[in-house]
Recover the amino acids of this structure.
């Protein structure tokens, strides 16, 4: 479980430098989590994800083309079409989503090239490379299903659905119903 590790890590060096997951990676994970939360209703349209998550439709189209090439989602054409997960959410790891959109969490200033100090490796290069590897391993240990079952994720998704006036049951409604039964 990952409760002890913060989602956003920041480190300061002599030049102000913050290490963080790029917008592309964060949006891809957010969109995939939205898809997982609403998957039981059939294919999910990118327009619905865009509206719920505040991500532009054109940007989602670019991300989902990469996610489809990464075999994480498949598309369904026609009326009622959209996207669905290609595999069970229990086996889709957050790191796979980030990797599929060609992103990495990199704590180095040199993008891992080792030319961070006037064309040479800086003193802390290997430390930051090790941190990047630890973050990737951390994200590899978290599945979409792990996130879907988190109470705080379910609460946010419920608020988003209520704002949109959805009358259909989302994944979290299904989880709550099965917990009561």
């Amino acid at each position: 479980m990952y409760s002890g590790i913060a989602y956003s890590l920041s480190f300061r060096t002599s030049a102000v430098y913050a290490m963080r997951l790029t917008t592309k990676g964060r949006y891809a994970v957010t969109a995939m989590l939205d898809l997982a939360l609403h998957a039981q209703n059939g294919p999910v349209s990118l327009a619905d994800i865009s509206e719920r998550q505040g991500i532009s439709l054109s940007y989602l189209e670019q991300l989902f083309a990469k996610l489809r090439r990464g075999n994480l989602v498949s598309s369904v054409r026609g009326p009622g079409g959209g996207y669905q997960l290609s595999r069970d959410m229990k086996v889709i790891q957050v790191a796979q989503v980030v990797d599929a959109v060609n992103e990495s969490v990199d704590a180095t200033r040199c993008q891992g090239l080792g030319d961070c100090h006037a064309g040479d490796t800086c003193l802390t290069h290997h430390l930051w490379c090790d941190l990047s590897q630890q973050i990737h391993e951390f994200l590899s240990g978290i599945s979409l299903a792990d996130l879907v079952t988190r109470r705080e994720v379910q609460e946010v998704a419920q608020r988003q659905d209520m704002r949109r006036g959805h009358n259909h049951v989302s994944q979290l409604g299904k989880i709550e119903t099965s917990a009561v039964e």
Confidence is low (pLDDT under 50) at residues 1-19, 176-181. Helices lie at 23-38, 46-53, 57-69, 94-100, 125-140, 144-148, 151-164, 171-180. The radius of gyration is 18 Å.
